[in-house]
Amino acid sequence: MKKITLQLIADELGVSKALVSKALSNDPAVNEVTKETIWAKAEEMGYRMKSSRKTIPASRTGNLAVLMPRAYLDDMEYWGKVIHGIEKELANHSFSMILSSIDISLSPKEGLPSSIYEKKVDGAIVMGHLPDSYIEALAATDFPYVMVDANLLESSIDHVLANNFLGSYQATNHLLESGHVKLGFVGDADTSWSFRERSRGFEEAIRDFNRKNSSNATAVTVEGIGVSGTGMYVAAEFAKVLSRFVKADQPVTALFCANDLTAFESLKLLSDWGISCPGNISVIGFDDLTLTEIMSPKLTTVRVPKADIGSRAAQMILRRIENPDVTPEHVLLSTQLIKRASVGTLDKAQP
User: Fold this and answer.
1) What is the DSSP letter of 124?
2) What's the predicted TM-score (pTM) here?
3) Residue 94's domain is classified under what CATH number?
4) Residues 179 and 255 in one domain
5) Tens of pLDDT along 118-172?
6) Which of 118, 177, 192, 231 gives 71 a disulfide partner, CB atoms 3.0 to 4.6 angstroms apart?
């Protein structure tokens, strides 16, 4: 096996051997972007580096805060994978992660961890639906942060999300192509930006399908279930609203649910009422939680790249720390439709 030398790395990058040596020795005369490039190439080529070479500048703590509403601790099936992606990416850059769950009933001064105000972390990744007052408090401290799947849409803040619109558009098309022309969207679209985009994708898919096929597919919205900074909620009237649409003289034959949890709740009610899936009605979820693969029927859903979202958020905050004035990014990561057993063709779905 060919031995990897400093000269070989320099030749690959088109730089001098001296620059490679300085970068791998963490020489402060070499800027951080160049160091990262050289470290990455050295690791890719299999060069043995001493861990001390990849150290954090003395002006930094080497710690990053990850902030999330406390209620999200009950949904670690989703957020745990995002956190894993963050932690893995930060480790590649010799940073440590400090997870802080926030009681959003408190004011930002009381709720934000002391590490923020005391500058014991170099930046923060804000996950989910923290109140706007918390984001404003972070901005007021001139503290670097990025957002993950948040409700606040601000062009000046780095933000990474799944492409909720295209994910729901593709899922709805799958229902339409399976012969379903009476569809229902399950979820309160105004409770989160993600739900709103999924609702928009659902509506656009139906509109485009009708125009291209001279069809008359129709849609209803089943409200009373959603997400917030305090977690999932199911309103008392949800069952009544769902019942009205699935037990009508001309019932909906397919449901697109704003996430897997709303699909689980809907399927439980449908089962209680003796309405089988996919025999009487087809159902699609969104997120691809583990239960979707082991339930009966296995749930067709839209897979969100949770770990990749976390990894991308970590890259974004490190970029922001290194270059505070760099142009903000809004990144949408692609989703994937996972076809399982909960969608039938129309002739199978009808009673």
Assistant:
1) E
2) 0.82
3) 3.40.50.2300
4) yes
5) 889 999 999 999 999 999 999 888 889 999 999 887 899 999 999 999 999 999 9
6) 231
